[in-house]
Amino acid sequence: MSNINNKSTINKVVLAYSGGLDTSVILKWLQDVYDCEVITFTADLGQFDDSVEGAAELAETRAKAERLGIKHIYVEDLREEFVRDYVFPMFRANTLYEGVYLLGTAIARPLIAKRQIEIAQEWGAQAVCHGATGKGNDQIRFELGYYALAPDIKVIAPWREWDLDSRAKLIAYAEQNQIAVPKDKRGESPFSVDANLLHISCEGKVLEDPATPAPDYIYQRSCAPEDAPDKATLVHIGFEKGDAISIDGKTLSPAALLTALNQLGGANGIGRLDLVENRFVGMKSRGVYETPGGTILLAAHRAMESLTLDSGAAHLKDDLMPRYAALIYNGFWFSPERQMLQALIDESQAHVRGEVVVKLYKGGVSIVGRTSSQSLYSAAHVTFEEDSVYDQHDAEGFIKLNALRLKLLASRNKGT
Fold first, then answer.
1. Are residues 271 and 238 both part of a single domain?
2. Is 302 a catalytic residue?
3. Contacts for 120-124: CB closer than 8 Å, 24+ residues apart
4. Which of 22, 79, 348, 353 is the catalytic position?
5. Is residue 109 flagged as an active site residue?
6. 1 falls in which pLDDT band (50, 70, 90)?
7. Do residues 214 and 298 both lie within one domain?
8. Tens digits of per-residue pLDDT, 71-103?
9. How far apart are CA 195 and CA 199, in angstroms?
10. Whether 271 and 365 share a structural domain
11. In 90-102, which positions are buried (b, 16+ CB within 10 angstroms) versus exposed (e)?
């Protein structure tokens, strides 16, 4: 079993702990292999809903850590910070990775990494640990975040160190150490799930063949579009400085607003996505994502910008967006270039305020109205009727000047 860290220098480690089988095994493995104190950190980013079942799942996460002898257990509700400081800034850019992916997993990792480092500094821990595999993007996202915030921190990545390289070995180790193995985890699990308030993603196993349609049971946050109501739902979304602040006239906190949009979108079959994406580590992977609230929010925000944002600013944002999306996908949230782009994006949002009316119907999101006190839309200029503000003769010189280089090029080519 290889190990890149000097175990003797590590007596405390902060583990990003989900409470699932993998991180429970990692917790015990850290105690056995590193002989160190483990502090667990569980970030509630919306994967635990407010139902009785959600509360019980959250309580069980804490109880699992207690049964493994953990004295310092952090379980924190970070939903508001997650949406306010990570999701909303990203949505100001209309961010899509490879044209379709709303980055629900990628945008959660910087916040988890930040809190791990803060806890490590509070307790004088020499190391932090995550449960991401050596094949995926999350190992990069976590570790770039760690090093950006604490350049001397030691990172423990068990999937790159241990010899528990199969599901059977993982379960055997769990059973040897009296770690409960959920029944659905015995043998081969059907697929891997990551969830937060922005999305649910599923990868692996039954989804590994991109030619095979995803089974219906994959979807957890939305109904099938064909099963959605036959009557459309109209939603009024209010904006201020580029951020959504209200639904149907009711002001809501960031997390409450995204929760409400998830419910509206899920009930109307909104936000399902089946894609093959290019991972940063070089391979392609197939994933199935549900982002109902985010899908609505993206459409509404673009509609609000269409009314209030100057064309040059809007087109520049569209040019920069793929670069911004790649920075988030690849784990560079704390990089200076992402922060520079964010400053530009935020500056563009000063006048993006007003209300958008969205129609939800059987998986589709349609914009049916938009109003703003900051509107740049001038009915006097665009009317097809008689007006006194635009001289159509001006267009002739504009066209000739723009055509000059094309005429010169055509004349040269004709001569050859």
1. yes
2. no
3. 120/12, 120/14, 120/39, 120/150, 120/153, 121/150, 123/12, 123/14, 123/39, 123/72, 124/12
4. 22
5. yes
6. very low
7. yes
8. 999 999 999 999 999 999 999 999 999 999 999
9. 6
10. yes
11. bbbbbbebeeebb
Q: Which pTM does this prediction carry?
A: 0.92
pLDDT of residue 101: 97
Active site residue 209: no
- Residue 252, domain CATH: 3.90.1260.10
Residue with tokens 């049964």: 67
Active site residue 22: yes
Out of 109, 272, 353, 370, the active site residue is: 109
Q: Is the pLDDT of residue 2 over 60?
A: no
pLDDT of residue 320: 98
Which range, of 187-191, 235-239, 404-408, averages the lowest pLDDT?
Answer: 187-191
Q: Name which of 73, 96, 14, 83 is nearest 45 in CA terms.
A: 83
How many structural domains are present in the chain?
2
Both 26 and 74 in one domain: the answer is: yes
Q: Is 101 helix (H, G, I), strand (E, B) or coil?
A: strand
User: Of the residues 189, 220, 251, which one is the last residue of a structural domain?
Assistant: 189
**Domain end residue (candidates: 189, 211, 237):** 189
Query: Do residues 164 and 223 both lie within one domain?
Result: no
Catalytic one among 79, 138, 338, 348?
138
CB 290 within 8 A of CB 274: no
pLDDT tier, 378 (very low <50, low <70, confident <90, very high otherwise): confident
Domain, as residue range, for 209:
195-309+351-371
Residue 85 DSSP label: I
Candidates 77, 160, 192, 375; catalytic one: 192
Residues 264, 138: one domain? no
Band (384; pLDDT cuts 50, 70, 90) = low
pLDDT of 293 higher than 60: yes
